[in-house]
Amino acid sequence: MAAPPLGLACRVAGVFTSPAVAHPGSRPRGLLPRLLPSKRWSGVVRMGAVVGGGQEREEDEELRQTKEQAAARRRWETLIREQKIKTLTPREAGYTFKLTDKALLDVRPSNERQKAWVKGSTWIPIFDVDTSVDLGGLSKKVSNFVMGGWWSGSTTLSFNKNFVQQVEEKFSKDTDIILVCQKGLRSLAACEQLYNAGFENLFWVQGGLEAAEEEDFEREGSQPFKLAAIGGVSEFFGWTDQQRRQAAKEGLGYRLVFTGRLVGALVLVDALFLGVQRIGPLLQELQSR
């Protein structure tokens, strides 16, 4: 079975809608059609787009990406259907990791890992934050920021070309490995990479850590698992779906924190506006003298 094209692998690094959480002990039905909603790939397509490209070029690129997505979906469906990659819910994965000698491999990028991680897990990212400073890397970062990164806090990620090698250095190929990421897609791509490299016992956590409850895993880090991937202006004001769900659990005190931030921001903007209005006439008066 051929490895996924690198271009597709890089686009798996984007932000996706998390799949529905399965009930403990259940098995997913119709898994991948829900897991890979085509509408949500558009943000990742834009993230890697060349700034200033023509419409025809963009349409050709989107067509190619659509074909790669469909091919990846078929490969992943086959691997799961044939039980070459076994599926666990977050709760099943948590119990399995606690009660057996299976390894838990976290493949998330560093910006998500540093906020929250499973105690005792091994971290080898399949994608990590792009730190390149060449023209191509900078154009992608600018494009990502303009296309919504300022709001969502999403960053440009680069494919870890040494991922399989690093896993091979850490684990033998007959090791039972549970792979997890934030929402489930990157860990599924990682499962395929490792399966093609000869790893025999792979377990994929459906929905990732975002679908887990706090009691499913022993957590370390400052944030709940569900909030590890959010950022930007939307996180600061508490306007993400994850934070709204968290607020429903935490109560009024949690909401007041973000209400206070919003009020403070409005007061600051108002003060700046009034300041500009007063400075303008003052500068004109100084120039007239």
Automatic annotation (TrEMBL):
<dbReference type="InterPro" id="IPR036873">
    <property type="entry name" value="Rhodanese-like_dom_sf"/>
</dbReference>
<feature type="domain" description="Rhodanese">
    <location>
        <begin position="98"/>
        <end position="221"/>
    </location>
</feature>
<protein>
    <recommendedName>
        <fullName>Rhodanese domain-containing protein</fullName>
    </recommendedName>
</protein>
<dbReference type="InterPro" id="IPR044664">
    <property type="entry name" value="STR11-like"/>
</dbReference>
<dbReference type="Pfam" id="PF00581">
    <property type="entry name" value="Rhodanese"/>
</dbReference>
<dbReference type="InterPro" id="IPR001763">
    <property type="entry name" value="Rhodanese-like_dom"/>
</dbReference>
